[in-house]
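in:
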């Protein structure tokens, strides 16, 4: 939301104590974003809020005569602080819708898009940047860094085995073309300082000093399990990125 509009909304000003809202000087085109961009879902088919959903969430529904039914239901859910079980129920309902969106995007990317090459890459990259690739990778992997075991999703990077810039649209979306890595190991892999051989054993560049390897937590006994399709992608990485 535009900062100027947010500052004029008393409800927002009272509810959120974001320091940007209380500054006198506002940058041009400055906006405030609500929500967690990593955990948020962008859905082609939104979850329908109705009486049945409120009943499942154990939320009492007492409509005001001044509101339409939809307004009353929406307001009731909007200002209700949900407990963990209610949040879990909503996520269970959202996940199938999210998967449908993911499959629809996958189908779109396999079909011709009437855009020039630059426009197409911008559109696709923007949509993948909405965490779709990471969410898909988290769903099939064990939600931890392949090398060090970091499990905090905030610090897990959905790294492409064959880089984005070198992949076609299908490869960019293929979860087999992905590894979950922590920021340290993602940087090493992305820059070609580490790779993996055919059986998943780590390959470490001779250009790295022993101290660097120690502090970045890599050693020659590290190994990852790779599917047959991942091995094909990894072969590309060894030949074209590893040095």
């Amino acid at each position: 939301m535009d900062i100027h509009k947010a500052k004029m909304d008393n409800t927002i000003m009272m509810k959120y104590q974001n320091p940007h809202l209380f500054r006198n000087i506002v940058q041009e085109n400055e906006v405030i974003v609500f929500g967690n961009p990593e955990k948020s879902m962008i859905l082609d088919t939104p979850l329908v809020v109705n009486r049945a959903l409120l009943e499942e969430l154990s939320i009492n529904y007492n409509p005001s005569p001044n509101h339409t039914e939809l307004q009353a239901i929406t307001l009731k859910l909007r200002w209700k602080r949900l407990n963990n079980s209610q949040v879990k129920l909503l996520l269970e309902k959202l996940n199938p819708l999210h998967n449908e969106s993911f499959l629809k995007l996958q189908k779109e990317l396999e079909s011709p898009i009437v855009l020039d090459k630059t426009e197409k890459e911008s559109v696709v990259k923007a949509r993948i940047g909405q965490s779709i690739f990471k969410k898909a990778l988290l769903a099939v992997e064990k939600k931890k860094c392949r090398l060090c075991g970091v499990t905090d999703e905030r610090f897990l990077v959905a790294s492409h085995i064959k880089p984005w810039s070198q992949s076609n649209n299908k490869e960019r979306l293929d979860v087999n073309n992905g590894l979950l890595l922590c920021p340290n190991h993602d940087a090493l892999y992305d820059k070609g300082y580490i790779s993996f051989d055919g059986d998943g054993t780590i390959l470490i560049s001779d250009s790295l000093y022993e101290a660097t390897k120690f502090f970045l937590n890599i050693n020659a006994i590290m190994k990852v399990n790779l599917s047959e399709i991942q091995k094909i992608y990894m072969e590309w990485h060894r030949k074209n990125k590893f040095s």
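note: DSSP finds ten helices and four strands in the chain.
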